[in-house]
Structures are given as C-alpha cells and as structure tokens.
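User: Modeling request: complex.
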Amino acid sequence: MKVSLFIPCFIDQFYPHVGISMVQVLERLGCEVDYPEGQTCCGQPAFNSGYWDEARAVAEHSLKTFKDCDVIVSASGSCGAMMRVFYPDLFKETVHHFDALKMAPKIHEFSEFLVNVLGVKDVGARFDGTVTFHDGCHGLRELGIKTEPRELLSHVKGLNLVEMNDTETCCGFGGTFSVKFPAISTAMGEVKCTNIVATKADYVVSNDSSCLMQIQGLLDRQGNKVKCLHLAEVLART
Amino acid sequence: MIAFAREFKRMAARYTADLQHRALIQRALRSYEVKRDEFKARYQSWGEARQAASEIKWEAINHLDRYLEEFITKLEARGTKVFVASTDAQARDYIVKVAQENKVKRIIKSKSMTAEEIELNHALEHAGCTVFESDLGEYIVQLRHEKPYHLVFPAMHLTREDISRLFEKELGSQPTNSPEELTMIARSVMRKNYIEADLGISGANFGIAETGMISITENEGNARLGTSLPKIHVAIMGIEKLLPRLEDLALFLPMLATAGAGQQITCYNTLYGGPRQPGEIDGPEQFHLVLLDNHRTEFLADAEQRDSLHCIRCGACLNVCPIFKNVGGHSYGTTYQGPIGSVITPHLRGLQNWKHLSFASSLCGACTEACPVGIDLHHHLLQNRRNATQGKATWWEKPIYAGFVFFMRRPWLYQLSGKLGKIFFPLHKLVNGTLLDPLRLWTKTRDFPDMAPQSFQEYWKEKKAKGPHAPR
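Assistant: Request completed. Predicted assembly structure:
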C-alpha cells in the first residue's frame, strides 16, 4: 500500500525522529512510503486563533500538496484532526469545500492507520521499560482514538503499560493557549505531570508531539527523569 | 488589553498559584465524578439518553414560538401573571414593581442563576427590600458578599472551617466542624425568615409547555417552603428552559441530577401551575412568572450556536473542565462560569469585552463530551474566536498571521527559515528565561526543546538520494 506521510511543521523541525520512526515502522510492515514534498503547516495556529481567512490560505496549500494522495498518515492527532475534521468546516461555502470533504476520509492518524486500516496490532517491536500513555485531546475527542495506541503498545515485547489517573485530561498545551495563558496552561500541565510521576513509569508515550513538548518541558523543569516518546519512536525499536 | 481580560488574567494567576485552593476544588470534583459515574452506569445507555435529551431540546428550541405561546396560555388560564421581559432591566423593574405594589419588605429567595444574571437582589435591596437567600450555599456566599462560585455549587470553594468561622462572625454561633451542626445553625436563622417573608422568589429548572407548569429541582426543600409560605410567589425563568411535554421530565429530572450533582435524582422536584385555586387551602395568592429573553432570541437567530439554548444549567461542563479546575469560578467574573459561560457570556455582555474567555481554553473538548444535552461547546469557542477576530483583529496578531501565510505557502521559504533557525537558535540559550527571551511566555515555567540538527525534510531528501535499497 502506498502511504503518504504528513509530517507537521514542528515535528519536521523539532522532532524529525518521529517521522523517521514512522517511515521505519511502515516500511517494516511492507508499505510503500511517500512524502509529498512542499508540505508545511496545516494552518491550525491561525485557525485556533480566529484567523480563518489566513488559516484557509495555508490549508489551501495543504489541499494542493496532498491532492493526488489516496492514503495520508499524520504524525500528529491534532494536525490530523485539523485536516479531517476542521478543513470541511473551514472551507464551507468556498470553491474548495468539495476538495476538503474529499480529502477528509483519506487522513489517518498513525496508530489508527496501523490498527484500523492495516489491521496490525503487533508491529514486531521490542522496548524495555514501563510506559504510561497520554491521550492527546484532539486525537481522542475529534478523531475518536482511544484503544488503538494501547493495542499497539500492549503487543510490544518487554513493554509494561500502566495507566495514569485522568489520562483523558488535557495536558494544557492547546497551541497558542500555552503562551496566551501561560499560568493556566502550566497549572494544567502540573496536574498532568503529577499523575504521570505517580505511575512510576519511565516513559510517557503519546500520539501527539505537541502534548509531549508541554509535558517534557515541565518534567525537565521540575527535574524529573521521566522521558517523553512519540508512539512511533517506541514502535520503531526492535 | 480590555479591563475584563486583564482582570481574568490577574485572578487566574492568583488562583493557579494557590495550590491549596486547586487541591480543594479538584478533591471536591473527584468525589462528584465518582458519584456521577455510579449513577450514569445505571442508565441502559447514557449516550442514547443524551441523544434523546438533545433531540427534545432541539424540538423545543426550534419551535420556541409555539411552545411559549402554549405555555403562557395555560399558565394564564389558571391565574398566573406572566411577564415577558426583553431585557434584564425590564425583568428587574417588573419584580420591583410587584414588591412595591404589595408593600413587600422581606423576601425569601431560593437559588436562581437567572436572578443572578439580572442582578435582582441588588435592585430589590435598592428598592428597600431585604432579600434572604435560602439555599444553604447561596446563603453562605451572601453572608460573604460574594457571587456564586459555581452555578450549581455556589460555596464549593469554602471548607467547613471557613463556614464555621463565617457563622461565628456573622451569626455569633459556636465553632463546629460538623456539617450537620452548621446546617442547623443556618436553619435556625432561616426559619424566621420564611415565616416573616412577604414574597418568595424562585428560579425554574424547566417549563412544561403542555401543562403550563414550571418545575423546580432542589435538595434542601427551601424552594418549596419559600414559594408556598409567602402570599406572593415570583418565579424567573429564561425563555429557553421549555420542554414540550410533561413526560419529558422523566428523562430530564434524573439527567439533571446525575450530570449536575452526581445524584440519581434530587430530593425535591416540584411542579407549579399557578397561584392558589378556588377551594384550595394553601399556596400563594399571587403567582408571577417572569420570562426573560435578555439576548436569548439572538442565539435563536444564530444557526451555528443555537444549541447553546439547550443548556439546562447542570454544571457538568464546569465539573470536567481543566481550566475551571485550576482557575476556579471567581476568576471568570461572569454569572455563568466554565465552558458554557465562556460560550454565552460574549453574547450576553458583548463579544469584544468577553472574547478572552473563548481564547482561555485548550479546546480539549471535555465539556462537549460531558454535556448531557449535546451542546457543541468547544467548537462554539472556536466560532467565538473567529467572530471576535473578524470583528476586530488584535493589531499585532494580524501581521504575524499574514507572515505565517506568506511563509507557509512558500515551501522554499519555510525550509530556508528552518535552516536559518538552526543557525540562530543556539543563541536562544544566551537569553533563555530572561526578559530578552522572545519565548519567555513559554520558558518562564517550561523548558523549550532544541531544534533538530537535521529536519525530516532533509532526512527524506538524503534518503531519496541514496535510493530505495539504502540501509535505514
């Protein structure tokens, strides 16, 4: 199966290893991996800030970049939700509405693609350590992803999965919210970190690097040794 | 920045820094969650019950004209005086007039967020009446000269010790740690107020169009007593609280109790259909119902956010909101706190003044998931942001997003800025956390990640150049 990767801008610049890990896992499973060149950002920062005209201009670029792709796999639940759920809203009553509706069902978040499209639960990974999983809100509530990453993690050899309290509670990142209201965002992150640390896990895993940037940023500042990893980075280890 | 936004930020900073307060609220809501889940589990399907509730409210709201007419006609037929107030001022004036015409001095009031919305107590006190709050939580915040902290649990921010100290100071009671004793202290004061009151004020949880009745839900019996002892009962209700049929209560009363308070059903649920009828031995001689619009018809005209009128004021969205749990109810500065407050306050009090509440959200969607009547709360926050920005963009944001578009539509420019970023980013270490740090809103409390030496795009180019069979 030919799979087109969507590697959102901040993953491209700050967490490229997430994308590389996705390539490794997908190739291991026999997929033909493609990366449509020229991709940048999904437009979510402008969209969430209320600048819908600007978001539309950036989203148009994405529609163009991915127009010939049949299967698009996103490295982030949040950016995936932007393209699958919010593009059709954003382009309502514009010439691109049909293109947005046509593209929406082709977008898959990584874990959802592996489990629901490829039908794979065991990707043949080995990872030694205790792991807790954080549900990113957009993946969870916009895309309905809950069991898929856990099924994948439960099949990783050597991995011990423990659930934290309130795993479905937001980490406080929220895009521009994190800098517009840093005190609230930090307080929310602190609650999340307390729940993470209480599990005594060595790693927090999520399918959204943006949540992990917030969580790792706080854990490091607090001097905690817990490390954040994207799901793909765990699944890539053999 | 607008004064309301500044005040919100100031209060939010104060409350988020108060770890004891955060722990108190989070502990209280944790025990609510346990009870709520216990009673939710008794539904054959909570999801389907939500769907049914949402459809019934949809029916009521989308045919509000018809149901209101039916409701008013039936109420008037039994002698209720119905007053439709377009604005908060009209509602206040009407109630003050009723009080003055009947030479009312003392008023006993049960809990009503609609009365809070129109600041009724203030108007009545100004007209020379004394208003006694009879709901225990409301009574406590009234003694403290505070606004309700939460639309269902007005005094949830106080500990038993706080309440004991308050009663000691205001009522001269002995200190105690027992909730029962504290309740008895309030009760001993309250009894006298009920008996002496000339007028009782209540809210309404639902209006039943089919029978022309209002339904009041409570746990303390205070509304029942305060509306039946005085010779006049004035109820105030938002026009959106209608349900088409009496049988709809079979769904809504338990849902309100479970979603709102983690109860199977509240202790007292009473229907009021009019004043004392000929041949009846008790009940008020006059029954007035004030139906409040106060911008609700503007919601009705807004197809996108019309479902905000489904709200039954249960407070479930507050109880799951991570923002509410950390900033608390008093930070909002609104009548309605939490997600529903952030959605509707801009419509009630002006978008530009209250838009900051729609931005003060991570858009996590826990509220929408919890709402028993399926209001699309977190997406409405997004729409408020869009409407606010279209109305008046922030002067410094507009050029930033113009630049964002310029770069993101030009992949070469995006890639070039990534390359330049890698050169200049190490300099960030020199200013990290200082006043010169452009990222200080982040780095004040959190570490910022380093840029990767090689971007994914660069990795991909290299991989492609090596050919498909190159080692990974």
